[in-house]
Amino acid sequence: MEAILYERFGGPEVLALGEADKPRPGPGQVRVKVAAAGVNPVDYRIRNGWMRHQFPVTFPAIPGLEVAGTVDELGEGVTGFAVGDEVFGHADTGAYAEYALATQIVAKPAGLSWEQVVALPVAGETSERVLNQLELAEGETLLIHGAAGVVGSVGVQLAVARGATVIGTASPENHAFLRELGAIPLAYGEGLVERVREVAPQGIDAVYDAAGKGALPDSITLRGGTTSRIVTIADTGAAELGVVFSGDGTPDPKPYYEAHARLAVEGRLRIRHAETFPLADAVKALELSEGGHTRGKLVIQP
């Protein structure tokens, strides 16, 4: 099968379109004929070797954690799925390929496109996990850094649904989008503490950092000097400040996948779509992702 492969850690230059053996499903796994693979910042972090402890890599490796497609083969003991079923979820093997193995999958709703469903797993599970770690409650005020990104924007919507007041940092061109989602938008950068205090004189109850661009010191200041109830998914220097870095996924994320798909079908969870790339152009998609200024989800289709 065709796949994007890399045989050493490094930048986009280590990636190449090549041939790999079609994987065979083991017990509890299904093989998915890939219709869409989601691009996430974690993909380039894994490829660079920055997350080798959380995501051990065996070379040659295929990137990609999010997969959507059609069940092609069942492993031993699999129930609830049949060959031909349309599914989406987390790939056990790299999703930037014609075929991938998966265990954590659910049925794809007929009302959502491949591009829509493949955008849900990482952003949805990550944001639910962080909001639970923060113990966010109705009536509280949450500050989200990187609120207009795919993960951050899902966090905004899930927090608003919990009854929280959400303040989101983003570049000015994304402020209208954040208002549509129910957040109070603010520009990031110098003077952030003053801007937040102006719109939230009552204080900030919790902080969700989805940006990883040096916002943690200001977050600690806004929390009154404590690191309590501050969680980042993007700042690898968090430990030096005593801030929690959330990188371990939920053991069984399938209920989240199903719940978020229902919300998306009902129009209550939106993820902007930026661009779709053929498998041969996957490197371009990763370069855009690593640049950090894409407005919406990047998707690869074999």
From TrEMBL:
- Does the record carry Nucleotide-binding as a key word? no
Entry's SUPFAM superfamilies?
GroES-like, NAD(P)-binding Rossmann-fold domains
Pfam families the record matches: ADH_N (PF08240), ADH_zinc_N_2 (PF13602)
Sample GO molecular function, one term = NADPH binding
InterPro entries, sorted: ADH-like_N, ER, GroES-like_sf, NAD(P)-bd_dom_sf
Record bears the keyword NADP: yes
The regions listed as transmembrane in this protein's record are: none
The Enoyl reductase (ER) domain, residue ranges: 10-300
* Alphabetic keyword roster: NADP, Oxidoreductase
List its EC numbers. 1.3.1.103
Annotated protein name in UniProt: 2-haloacrylate reductase
